[in-house]
């Protein structure tokens, strides 16, 4: 290779580097969920004094297993909200919100599956059926099919919870607050169902 070829190759590679993109442009902001019922900072919980509960991450359809927010456009049509993206998978965000809400509203000690080994705990499983917008009704919709196994019992209790919150528009700005409100309504219903 001659001395002139090396600078030419370097210049060509730098030019190409400006044209290559290794992923989509990230949105300006990412969406998350915040529980409206939280334990105060510093409050101690003790599983010897209160029942404990394991909240698992709910299963979801493929449409909800992505960071984008689905919009039901018709009974068989699905799109995604432009520029709206979750900070992490919505099922994980929802499980954390339910955990916070149950702990605050019931006094139960919510533990992870790892922490629950060797202890008698109730367990909340389920499927997050809807977690997005319905364009036909202009609502944020959260539907959770819960399955509760109480410690020492073989039977499983199942119940469907749903909340619908109106949205002003099908856009990124309206999506986060409406879904957060609907998710908190469902989490409160779940906590009241589980009880102390």
Automatic annotation (TrEMBL):
<dbReference type="InterPro" id="IPR005586">
    <property type="entry name" value="ABC_trans_aux"/>
</dbReference>
<dbReference type="Pfam" id="PF03886">
    <property type="entry name" value="ABC_trans_aux"/>
</dbReference>
<feature type="signal peptide">
    <location>
        <begin position="1"/>
        <end position="23"/>
    </location>
</feature>
<feature type="domain" description="ABC-type transport auxiliary lipoprotein component">
    <location>
        <begin position="37"/>
        <end position="191"/>
    </location>
</feature>
<keyword id="KW-0732">Signal</keyword>
<protein>
    <submittedName>
        <fullName>Cholesterol transport system auxiliary component</fullName>
    </submittedName>
</protein>
């Amino acid at each position: 290779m001659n001395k002139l070829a090396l600078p030419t190759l370097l210049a060509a590679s730098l030019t190409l580097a400006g044209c290559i993109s290794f992923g989509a442009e990230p949105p300006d902001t990412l969406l998350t969920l915040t529980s409206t019922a939280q334990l105060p900072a510093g409050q101690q919980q003790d599983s010897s004094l209160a029942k404990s509960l394991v909240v698992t991450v709910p299963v979801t359809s493929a449409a909800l297993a992505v960071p984008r927010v689905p919009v039901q456009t018709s009974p068989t049509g699905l799109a995604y909200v432009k520029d709206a993206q979750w900070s992490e998978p919505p099922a994980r965000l929802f499980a954390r919100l339910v955990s916070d809400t149950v702990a605050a509203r019931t006094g139960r000690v919510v533990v992870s599956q790892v922490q629950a080994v060797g202890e008698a705990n109730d367990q909340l499983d389920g499927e997050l059926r809807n977690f997005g917008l319905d364009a036909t009704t202009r609502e944020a919709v959260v539907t959770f099919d819960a399955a509760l196994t109480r410690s020492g019992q073989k039977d499983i209790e199942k119940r469907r919870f749903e909340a619908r919150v109106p949205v002003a528009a099908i856009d990124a700005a309206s999506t986060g607050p409406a879904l957060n409100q609907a998710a908190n309504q469902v989490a409160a219903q779940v906590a009241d169902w589980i009880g102390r």
